[in-house]
User: Fold this.
Amino acid sequence: MNKYIKTVLVAILITAFAFPMATLKAEELLIAAPAPVSATVQLKAGVVQSASAGAIKISFPAKAIKQASAMKIDDLGSKFESPWNYSPLTSVYQFDFTDRGVAYDRAQPLRLEFKYEEKNDDYKQIFFYDGGQKRWRPLPSVDDPIKKIVSANIHFPFARIAVLTNSQVMTVGDASWYRFKSGLFAASPDFAKGTVVKVTNLDNGKSVNVTINDYGPDRKLHHSRVIDLDAVAFSKIASTKAGIIKVKIEPLKLVTAKDKEKIEPAGSVVTVSSKSAIVIRESDGSIIFGKNASTTAPLASLTKLVAAQVFLDTNPSLDREVAYSIKDEQYNHLYCKPWESARLRVADGETMKIQDLLYASLVGSANNAVESLVRVSGLSRNEFIAKMNEKAAAWGATSTRFVEPSGLSPENVSSPLDYAIMIKEIFKNPLLKKISSTVRYSFTTINKKIKHNLSNTNSGLLSAGYNITGSKTGYLDEAGYCLMTRVESPLGNLIIVNFGAQSKDDNFKDNERLINFGLKQLVK
Assistant:
C-alpha cells in the first residue's frame, strides 16, 4: 500500500470519529431535485449481506453488524456543487443506519460499489462529503471499466457519496509498445517523468508497474491511446505480437506539483495567483470567470497583437522585401537597456519579408521587429499609435491606452476584460490566430542568407494538448507576467487572460487552470 493511500485512510478514520453523526443539510450541496430513489434494507447480525438502491450497492462483512438493524439509502440527485476539476458521474447517495450506527462495528469496512451506465475513460474516484470542512474528499477507489463499477471501502455509519470523474486524466484506453530503455518504462501524455503507474491489461487481468520516462502518445493523432509501454513492460502483460491492447492505468506515485494538482479535488471555483484574470465565452462575450477583471494595469507584450492588427489594416503585401534599420530598436531603448529587450538579431540593412517581421513580432516577441513594421506601414509612428488607441476605443476597450507599439512602456495599460474584448475582434483575422499560435518559425534573410529560428514564448501550453488557436505572452517588471490564450472546443471557444503573475511558472499554471475551468463550465 503506497504512502498516499495510507495517508488518505488515516484521514478517513480521523474524520469518521471526529464527525461520526454529522447531519448535513441538502442546501449545503446545492441539491435541487427531490430524492428519486429511496430504500430501507433490514440487516441481520453476523452474516455477509448487502443493501442496494439505484446505482449504489453497499456490502457488509459478517462481523460488521453486531445486532439487527436497518440501513436507509436515498438518491439525492446529481445537481450538486462539486470540485471544479471533477464532474459527477453518478447521483449523490446518502446512507444512514436507522439506529444511528449503534449496531455497526466501525472496524469493519463497508464496501461501496457504484454502477455507471455510459462508457467513461476518465479518472474516477468515489468521494464522500465532509460536513465539518464542507468539501468533497476522495476515497481510494478502483474502477472496473469492463463491469462499469467503481468500488471503495468506507468506515462511516453515515455519509453522502458520489462518483466524480476528472477529464484531465485519461485512465482507460489503448496501449502500444516501443523499444527504448529496455525496462519497466512507459510514455505518457498525462503524467511527468518519474511518475509510477500500474497498467492492467483488460483482456487478461495481468498488470505491471511502470515508471514514466518519456512523453507520448500524441492524443491529437491517437485519441484512444492512454499510454505506450516499453517492449519489456508490454511483454509482462501481453505478447508484443498483439500490437495494441486495451488497458487501464492507476497512478501510484506522482512526482510533480502539477500532476498532484490534477488529481486532488479543488474548490467549487478555480483560484489563481495572478493579480487579475478573466475567462469569456467567445461567441457572446459572457464572463465565465473573473478576478479583478476590470482593473487596469500594464499589459506588456500583449500590446503587440493590437499593433499587428493595425499594421494589417494597411493591407501590406506579406511577400514584400524590406530592410531592417538599426534606428528601429533605438525606440525600444527609450524604455529599457539594449540588452534587456527581446529582439530579432539582424544587422542594419539586412533584408527579409514583411511576413518574417510579423512572425518575429508575435512568435519571438521581438520588440525591434514591431518597430520595423511601424516604419514600413506607411504611417508615421505617432499616427500608428493613434490608430491603436482608436481601434481599442472602437472595440469597446475603454480602459485601454497605448503610448508605444511594442509593450515596453508601463504606460501601455489595459484590463483582462478590455483585452478579452480586443482579442475577440483581433482573432477574427485568421492570420493573427495562425501566427500567434505557431510553436516554431524559421526564415532566412534575403541578402545575407542568415537563418533565424524562432520559438514561441508560450511553447509549453501550445504543446500541452489543448486546441489553442491564439496566444501571446508578456512581461515587464511593472506588469508581472501576463498571458492570453484562445482555446477552441466542440462546445464553444474561450478567451483566457491573466495579468500580474509573480513568475513565469505561475503565469502558465494560472492560464492552464483557467483553460480547464472554462472547458468544464462549457459542459454544464
Observations:
- The two ends are 36 Å apart (CA to CA).
- The CA atoms of residues 77 and 91 lie 5 Å apart.
- The longest strand covers residues 158-170.
- Confidence is low (pLDDT under 50) at residues 1-35.
